[in-house]
Amino acid sequence: MLSNPEYLVISWSTNVTNRTWFLVFVALMLTGCAHHSHRLEDVQGPVQWGAQTQAMRFHHLYFAGQPDDAAWADAKASGVDVVVNMRLPQEQSVDQRPAVEAAGLQYYSIPVGVVGDEKSLQAFAEMEQVLKAHRGQKVLVHCASGNRVAAWFATHLANEDGVPADESLAIARKVGLTNPSLDERVQGLLGSVAVQ
User: Fold this and answer.
1) Residue 39 — very low, low, confident or very high, per pLDDT cuts 50/70/90?
2) pTM, whole model, 2 decimals?
3) Which positions ≥6 away from 81 have C-beta within 8 Å?
4) Burial of 7 from C-beta contacts in 10 A (0-12 / 13-18 / 19+)
5) Among 34, 99, 116, 172, which is most exposed with the fewest C-beta within 10 angstroms?
6) Pairing between strand 61-64 and 53-58?
7) Tens-place pLDDT, residues 172-189
């Protein structure tokens, strides 16, 4: 009986309650999808924290090069709860964990060296776990220049959120992917072609 087109038309037009619930469901789904937009226009910034830190924002994530000591309190005042440092230990002259935690922020060190090697891919997977553990919180991700964090973000957008490679790259470039050779490596990870 369901294969009869007349039955479907009559059923749809006469069952107002079910039709109303169906339309409410569709509206909620569309609203939910719109909330998680991933557009280039969603990138905001730069935000000035401390004396020199320029952070870019994409929804609940902030991206920066190495913040100065004054930036931690400014980040906290902006609602940031978590800091992820992607710098290698040998790049750092001082352990920033005490200053970050003194500002009331939770600290993670997830070192990334050469983007695209096995260690960096493991670090990217660890980063995804941190984001899942802190869902709904504002997170500042930084490295020395902002390039590695933007490289990670391109892979995050593509792999975790299903954003097409060219759009992922465009957003990553806007939040801090400025190094041409790193850009090429990220394109290789995404299996995409250059987007200008």
Assistant:
1) confident
2) 0.77
3) 105, 106, 134, 137, 138, 139
4) exposed
5) 34
6) antiparallel
7) 999 999 999 999 999 998
Q: What is the pLDDT of residues 94-136, one digit of tens each?
A: 899 999 999 999 999 999 998 888 899 999 999 999 999 999 9
Residues in the chain: 196
Please give the CATH superfamily to which domain 41-190 belongs: Protein tyrosine phosphatase superfamily (3.90.190.10)
Residue boundaries of the structural domains of the chain: 5-35, 41-190
User: Going by DSSP bridges, is the β-strand pair 138-142/61-64 parallel, antiparallel, or unpaired?
Assistant: parallel
Which residues are CB-neighbours of 64 under 8 A, at least 6 positions away? Answer: 49, 53, 54, 55, 56, 71, 140, 141, 142, 146, 149, 176
Phi-psi region of 40 (alpha: psi -120 to 50; beta: other; left: phi over 0): alpha
- Please state whether 166 falls in left (phi above 0), alpha (psi between -120 and 50) or beta: alpha
Residue 148: count other Cβ atoms within 10 Å of its Cβ.
27
d(CA 167, CA 40): 8
Nearest alpha carbon to residue 65 among 86, 45, 51: 86
